[in-house]
Each structure stands twice: as structure tokens, then as C-alpha cells.
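testing teh design pipeline on a random one, pls ignore if ur not involved
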């Protein structure tokens, strides 16, 4: 399993770097749409959202990404329209009002959780492709350090009820990995950050990545599944791979906005 993870990472990471850094920005927009569609499909499968509600949720999620990319001032409006549309579809697609709130809540939470959070990556991309590399590089460094330290020396359970395999030692590794990733990508790509700024961002990324991972674990445990999907050999589903970045993206955007690095 470890070897498979390394092989997949060795193939995907260089491809993603060149894809994000050297192709026109429209290609990154398409990538976000694809990630949103795949992750939303997995989320809908976990919570058994079927029929017209599932397909409407997928399309509405893609529309939220489109608005974030092309007209960010209307992002909140697009989310409200999406929620209203889900409610109206449930109203007319099933006459029995019983279970209407559960039927609506899963798609709505999915829309907020996946395309809603992914939309911040569209905003980061407008500040430069290097911020997307910085985000994912720091998150993946955080995840990797958490995984290997947790496997190697982890003993103290972090949150047994939600994710029995996560440890306090692994969480500390996540913070260390976030710091290392932020410092490495600062030197390689983003010289405008000071070392202290990079360390602060790395700490925040390390912490929030663990939280994002735990949130997805909470959803999976509630839904009774081990992985969100199996599209990536040795890595689970798309949602399993972007769970930390979903939460880290908005946090990075807000930090850069406060620092006046991001307009």
C-alpha cells in the first residue's frame, strides 16, 4: 500500500505542477469543475442522494465554481439560488413531505462543503498559479508528515470516535509538515512571503488540514463508509484527497487578504 501511494503521487504531482503553472487559467477552472463533480458524486453516493436531486446538485455545484471564477461578486447569490433550487426540486419531485428536510439537507451541505469551499481556490488562482501550488504543496506535506509520523510513533488517539487511527503525534507531524512545506514553497516560488509569515501559514495549514480530514471522517463514519470512493489507487476517492485542501483553501485566502497580499 505504501509503495502504491508513492507511485501514484510520483506520477500525479509533477503532472499537476505543470498543468497548473503552465497551462492557461481556463484549464484550472475546468479542473476545479471536474474535482467538484467527482467529489460531489462521492458525497451524494455516501448519503444516498439519488435521481434528479443528485444530478441537480452536481450541476448546481459546477455553477457555483463558474460564478466564483467568472463573477466572484455574485458567489453568495449563486449559493442562495442553489439552495432554493434544491428545495423547489424536492417540493415538486416527491409529493410526500415526509423526510423532506433530510432529502434537502444532504445536497445543501454537500454544496456548501465541496464547491462552496473549492470556490476559494478559484479566488487564489487569480492571485497567481503559485498560490495553488503553495496550497497543495503545504497540505500534501502536512498530510504526508502526519501519515508517516502517525504510523511510525503514534500512540495517543486524537479523536477515537471520529477517526480511530489518527493520533496526537500524527497531528503534530501535520503541523511540522505544514511548516516545512510552506518554507520550501516560499523559497521555490513565493519570495514575497517572509520566513515568519511562511511559518505562521504553515502552522495554520497543518492545523486546518487535520480538521478538514476529521470533518470528512465524521461524514464517512456517519454514512458508514471507509473511503469516499476508489478512483485513485491506494488513495481512496477524490474527496479523500482534497479534504484538507477544502478547509485550507479559504483559510489561506483569508490570511493573504489580511496580509494584503491577496486583493
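output:
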Amino acid at each position: 500500500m505504501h509503495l502504491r501511494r508513492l507511485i501514484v503521487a510520483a506520477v500525479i504531482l509533477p503532472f499537476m505542477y505543470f498543468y497548473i503553472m503552465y497551462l492557461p487559467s481556463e484549464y484550472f477552472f475546468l479542473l476545479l469543475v471536474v474535482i467538484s463533480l467527482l467529489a460531489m458524486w462521492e458525497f451524494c453516493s455516501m448519503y444516498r442522494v439519488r435521481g434528479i436531486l443528485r444530478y441537480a446538485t452536481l450541476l448546481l455545484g459546477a455553477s457555483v465554481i463558474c460564478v466564483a471564477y467568472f463573477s466572484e461578486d455574485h458567489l453568495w447569490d449563486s449559493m442562495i439560488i442553489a439552495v432554493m433550487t434544491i428545495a423547489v426540486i424536492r417540493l415538486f419531485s416527491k409529493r410526500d413531505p415526509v423526510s423532506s428536510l433530510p432529502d434537502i439537507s444532504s445536497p445543501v451541505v454537500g454544496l456548501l462543503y465541496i464547491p462552496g469551499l473549492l470556490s476559494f481556490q478559484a479566488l487564489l488562482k487569480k492571485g497567481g498559479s503559485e498560490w495553488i501550488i503553495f496550497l497543495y504543496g503545504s497540505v500534501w506535506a502536512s498530510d504526508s508528515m502526519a501519515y508517516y509520523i502517525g504510523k511510525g510513533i503514534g500512540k495517543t488517539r486524537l479523536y477515537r470516535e471520529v477517526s480511530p487511527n489518527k493520533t496526537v503525534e500524527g497531528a503534530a507531524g501535520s503541523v511540522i509538515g505544514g511548516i516545512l512545506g510552506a518554507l520550501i514553497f516560499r523559497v521555490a516560488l513565493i519570495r514575497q512571503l517572509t520566513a515568519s509569515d511562511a511559518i505562521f501559514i504553515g502552522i495554520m495549514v497543518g492545523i486546518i488540514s487535520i480538521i478538514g480530514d476529521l470533518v470528512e471522517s465524521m461524514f464517512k463514519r456517519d454514512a458508514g463508509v471507509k473511503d469516499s470512493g476508489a478512483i485513485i489507487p491506494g488513495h481512496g476517492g477524490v474527496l479523500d484527497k482534497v479534504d484538507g485542501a477544502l478547509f485550507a483553501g479559504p483559510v489561506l485566502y483569508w490570511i493573504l487578504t489580511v496580509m494584503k497580499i491577496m486583493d
